[in-house]
Design a protein that fits this description.
The protein has two domains: 2-176 and 339-351, 3-Layer(aba) Sandwich (Rossmann fold), CATH 3.40.50.2000; 179-334, 3-Layer(aba) Sandwich (Rossmann fold), CATH 3.40.50.2000. It contains 15 helices and 13 strands. It has helices spanning 15-26, 58-61, 75-80, 85-95, 110-122, 133-136, 142-148, 157-164, 179-182, 206-216, 244-249, 271-279, 308-317, 325-334, 340-351; strands at 2-6, 31-35, 53-55, 102-106, 126-130, 151-154, 170-172, 194-197, 220-223, 234-236, 253-256, 283-286, 300-303. The strands form two sheets. It has a seven-stranded parallel β-sheet, with helices on both faces. A six-stranded parallel β-sheet has the order 10-9-8-11-12-13, with helices on both faces. Helix 4 crosses helix 5 and helix 10 packs across helix 13. The protein starts with a strand and ends in an 18-residue tail after the last helix.
């Protein structure tokens, strides 16, 4: 069994995790989850049958001081100090009979700290996928976690270079897109509107996108739990992941004005962009981190972050006759092959497992449409 250690489970905003887990289950590979916490939007996440979940009791999950854990790797001691044993001893006692052969964490933060200690106690290998906030607003443990992890993976080439500059070798494991997006296409009869799917946090730049759409006079569908942005020309409301493909299909252009937040946080490569491209929507987005790896003039427009004029010009251009034409076909082609199956295959390769013909393969891989 692969044990996933996750800060939040489930959460609708991390479909890159739920999709990866679902693909393992589809292949018949046993998966379990150790959840450190949960988010309210987890009620909207797509359920994945057959995934046992162990949740830390509230007292353990919120503890700020753990007793020392006698790890075999003493590099843990410098940043863990008195913090580990209560949690890890409890977790290991519950997990002993699960048949765990590998531990994997998403985000090189608290989940990776716990994954390292649990894997160490169980005597199994562990790995971590790095994303964004874990690198750019790091916990004090980040250097030790990355140095102590046998297999570090990351979601975009930008991060791979960023990590290499700091002496960390990371395998590239791009996020995959649910087949439902490849099976969906924009409605040619739908009225023109821009759509954005994002959380209402500073790095997503909703405070830049909403005013820009209003100044240009383009209607915006903002799929977010962000009622403060509702008003003239802007429809706001969150949706469960299963309803996102239809919302994209009823739209004309996807836009995301991402930026580096004051905290240093920024996006890696938002899966929402990949999903929009898979549907066939042109994308207007800011040139942050890994975004330029998939967005350019062929599929939309790349603008400098926090450049209001450039964003407005791009939104205005998207309404011009013929602007969307070739970009729609190119958008889908740009992400062709970025399936969940490909994501898991890349992760298996990083682990040193064969990517075809393995015991869990069922010969029925999703197609990228």
């Amino acid at each position: 069994m692969i044990l996933y250690v996750l800060r939040y489970w489930p959460t609708a905003s991390e479909t890159f995790v739920t999709g990866e887990v679902a693909e393992w289950v589809r292949r018949g590979r046993p998966v379990g989850v150790l959840a450190l916490g949960a988010r309210a939007d987890g009620a909207w996440a797509d359920p994945i049958p057959g995934v046992p979940t162990l949740r830390l009791p509230r007292g353990l999950a919120s503890a700020t001081a753990w007793a020392r854990w006698p790890s075999r790797d003493r590099r843990l001691a410098g940043w863990q100090g008195q913090r580990v044993a209560a949690r890890v001893a409890w977790c290991v006692a519950q997990l002993r009979d699960w048949g765990i052969t590998r531990v994997h964490a998403h985000f090189a933060g608290e989940a990776a700290e716990v994954a390292w200690a649990v894997a160490d106690a169980l005597g199994v290998p562990w790995s971590v996928t790095t994303h964004a906030v874990d690198l750019f607003v790091p916990r004090p443990s980040l250097t030790a976690v990355l140095a102590g992890c046998p297999t570090v993976t990351t979601i975009c080439r930008h991060h791979q270079r960023w990590l290499a500059d700091r002496g960390v070798v990371a395998a590239y494991v791009p996020c995959g897109v649910d087949d439902r997006f490849f099976a969906t296409a924009p409605d040619p009869d739908a009225p023109f509107r821009v759509i954005c799917v994002a959380r209402d946090v500073p790095k997503k730049g909703l405070d830049a996108l909403v005013p820009a759409c209003r100044r240009v006079g383009v209607p915006l569908r903002l799929v977010a739990d962000a009622p403060r942005w509702a008003g003239p020309g802007v429809a706001v409301g969150a949706l469960p992941p299963r309803d996102i493909p239809a919302a994209l299909a009823a739209s004309s252009v996807f836009a995301l004005a991402c930026r580096q937040a004051p905290s240093g946080d920024r996006d890696g490569l938002p899966v929402a962009i990949l999903e929009a491209l898979a549907v066939g929507l042109p994308v207007i987005a800011s040139a942050v981190a890994g975004v330029p790896e998939v967005v350019d003039e062929a599929v939309g427009r790349l603008v400098p972050p926090d450049d209001a004029r450039a964003l407005e010009d791009a939104l205005a251009a998207s309404r011009e006759p013929g602007w969307r034409g070739s970009r729609m076909a190119a958008a889908r082609q740009r992400v062709r092959g970025r399936t969940r199956a490909a994501q898991v295959d890349a992760l298996r390769a990083a682990w040193g497992e064969p990517v075809t013909g393995g015991p869990e393969e069922d010969g029925n891989r999703p197609r990228s449409g």
